[in-house]
Structures are given as structure tokens and as C-alpha cells.
Amino acid sequence: MKKYMVLCAGLCVALAFTSCKSSESAYRKAYEKAQAQEQTNVAPQPVEEIAVVTPVVEKPATETVVVDNADNVPVRQETLSVINGAGLKNFNVVVGSFSVRANAEGLQNTLKNRGYDAQVAYNSAINMYRVVAATSDSKSEAVGKRDALRSQYPDAWLLFNQR
User: Fold this and answer.
1) Which end of the chain has the lower number of beta carbons within 10 A, N or C?
2) Per-residue pLDDT tens digits for 49-88
């Protein structure tokens, strides 16, 4: 019985290999098809490139805000409006950003309980509520406040308020 099984399996393998044999006519058809496509595909004509020039918008010097970066401390620039708090100065230390106002006010309450004069400011351009723990007119003072806050809030960063 075992001999018949081995013989039948060998016969099946032999038939499988001989039936998969490619014919010369199949190769010829593929070759002719490729030649026909080559003849229809004429060399592509070069497309003329059109240069788009963006117009230069000039601002008067009075509208340009320059932020000193001599100390190499990164400062983001955004336009904020105060939602809850006393008011923002030029440089602000942000300890949290939220898309939900209630979350921002929760962090503000936590900061107030710890003795900070926290404020919530809103950036309407990106729909984010920023929780500001400290605010200052000078950058160096704001950097010092940010460094002090980083012990409790390691992701604290500086924000320049464009008014």
C-alpha cells in the first residue's frame, strides 16, 4: 500500500511540473505586446515649467516685533487674549496647553493653590487655552521663572505675546 502511495505522489509531482511548462507562443505574445506599447509611447515632450513667484509683503518697522535671542533660549510667538487672570506682559511662562477650557481652569486653580498668579489665555488661531504661571516684561526674568517652574513642570516654555 505504501508503494502505491509513493508511486502516485511521484506521478502527481511529475504531472505538475510538466503542465506548468511555458510555451514559446506565450513568450512571443508578450514580446509583441511590449513592442506595440513601445511604438505607441512616443518620447514624452518636455513640459514647460511655470515659475510661481510669491509677492513680497513689506511691513513697516513699527509693525515688526523683534525678540532678542542672544541667550539662545527658544521663545514661541502667539497672539493671546486673557480669559481668566490679571493680564499678560510680553514674556510668559506656559506650563500647560489645553483645547478644553475647563482643563485649563483646573490647572490654573492648582497653580493658584500653590501660590502662583496663574492665568488662562486663549489663542484663537489654533483654538488652544494656555495656562500661564508667570509673566514678565523682560526675557531674562521670564527665563529665571521658567527654570524655577521646571522642577514641578518640566515642559514649561516661554511665550512672547504679540499684541
Assistant:
1) N
2) 666 666 777 766 555 455 556 567 888 888 999 998 888 9
CA count, 13 A, side-chain hemisphere, 157: 12
Angstrom distance (rounded) from CA 31 to CA 76: 63
Three-state secondary-structure class, residue 39: helix
Place of cell 521663572: 145
pTM of the model: 0.57
Q: What cell numbers appear for 73 in the block?
A: 533660549
Residues in a beta bridge with 99: none
Considering only CA atoms, give the Rg of the chain.
36
Asked whether the CA dihedral 61, 138, 81, 128 is positive or negative, the reply is positive
